[in-house]
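quick q for whoever's on today - can somebody do inverse folding on this one?? i tried earlier but teh output was garbage lol. tokens:
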């Protein structure tokens, strides 16, 4: 029986046999893999270079929901844009961006502010609280639970600002009636018109029986 790997009788000494060709090809493949391995190891071991500073930015340390964030920002950046675009806390919403709708309400040192009207640099060293710091689905703040119970939202876009203002209201002087609550919540606009449900939620948390305006 003819050996397929045996050289033909007329084969020249310089002509590769099939076995020789496969052997050399295999060796070349192993050599190429071996040559690449140190490069892979070097890439994994090399430290990741730090991102270069963006020209015009300044360093700032903001304490948000109990965590200090050391970041670089444009000195003209608002607190709202810094929270959303740099720290990636997007629960605070951008509505009018002119301080008229209240969707961007957060707490600074326990007081409610419109974050779209504040420069982030103004608040280094302050305690900033966003809706993410009020409660989580597994442990809702009583105000969040009341908003759910009373359907105090429809599209939901204004809800985080409404809740932040409502939580701040609990520590502010406010009369017992619905009219008193509406007055203190007048800076928060609900385009869906869920105001009666929002007031009911707030009054529940305050422990007040709703007092009609007559």
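ok took a stab at it. sequence:
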């Amino acid at each position: 029986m003819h050996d397929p790997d045996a050289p033909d009788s007329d084969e020249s000494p310089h002509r590769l046999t099939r076995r020789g060709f496969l052997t050399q090809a295999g060796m070349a493949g192993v050599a190429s893999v071996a040559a690449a391995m140190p490069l892979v190891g070097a890439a994994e071991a090399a430290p990741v270079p730090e991102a270069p500073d963006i020209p015009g930015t300044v360093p700032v340390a903001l304490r948000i929901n109990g965590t200090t964030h050391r970041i670089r920002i444009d000195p003209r950046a608002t607190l709202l844009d810094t929270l959303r675009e740099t720290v990636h806390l997007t629960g605070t919403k951008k509505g009018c961006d002119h301080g008229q709708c209240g969707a961007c309400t957060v707490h600074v040192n326990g007081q409610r502010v419109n974050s779209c009207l504040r420069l982030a640099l103004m608040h280094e060293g302050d305690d900033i609280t966003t809706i993410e710091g009020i409660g989580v689905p597994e442990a809702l703040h009583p105000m969040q639970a009341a908003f759910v119970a009373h359907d105090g939202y429809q599209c939901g876009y204004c809800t985080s600002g409404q809740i932040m203002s409502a939580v701040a209201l609990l520590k502010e002087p406010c009369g017992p009636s619905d009219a008193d609550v509406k007055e203190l919540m007048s800076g928060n606009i609900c385009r869906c018109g869920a105001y009666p449900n929002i007031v009911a939620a707030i009054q529940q948390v305050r422990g007040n029986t709703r007092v009609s305006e007559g």
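fwiw The helical segments are 18-45, 79-86, 142-149, 159-169, 178-184, 195-206. also DSSP finds six helices and five strands in the chain. so keep that in mind when u check it
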